[in-house]
Structure formats: structure tokens, C-alpha cells
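Entry 14. Structure prediction run on the chain below.
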Amino acid sequence: MNDFDTILQELLKFRNERDWEQFHNPKDLALAINVEAGELLELFLWKNAADAKTEKVREELADVMLYSFLLAERYGFDLKEIMLEKIAKNGEKYPVEKAKGTAKKYNEL
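Output returned:
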């Protein structure tokens, strides 16, 4: 069992013990990801990045990731597979020779 599987199994156990699957439809999971991402952003609002409380960043990032795991599970996605596919796709959109050292979007390279 890989690390993703271990995390997912623990998360599903936690969810199922509380009978929360009934609330975890794709729409609400996507909304929850957005809410938690907003809470993560709020930690940086009106301050320098270095001033954000690291422990709170850890907690909010974990929330984003956990809801992402649940959404992926709902669709039967293999997280490792979809992330590696996305990295490869981004590699095609942002070739090193054009993208290195710039923050331009792929259509502006």
C-alpha cells in the first residue's frame, strides 16, 4: 500500500465512522475545497508571506488536500496517476527553453 492509499483509507474510516458520506457529493466536496483554500489564503491577507502562522498554513493545506482526496475517490481517480499526468501536460505547455525563469502563462511564452 502506498502513502496515498494509507491516507485515503484513514480518511474514509474517519468519514464512515461519522456517517458523513451522505454529505460528500462531488459538488459539495468541490465547494469544501474552495472554502478551505479561501481559509488558506486568508492566512496571508494583509501581511508578508513570512508572517503567516506556519501551523495554521499546515492545517488549512491539509484540509484542502483531504477534501481533494475525497473528491478523487468519489470519481475513482488515482491521485498519483492524475498528478503525474498533469505534471507531464504542464511540461508540454511550459517547455524549459521557453518558461525557465518567467511567470508568463503558456499562451504568452
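The first helix runs from residue 3 to 17.
Filed with the rest of this week's runs.
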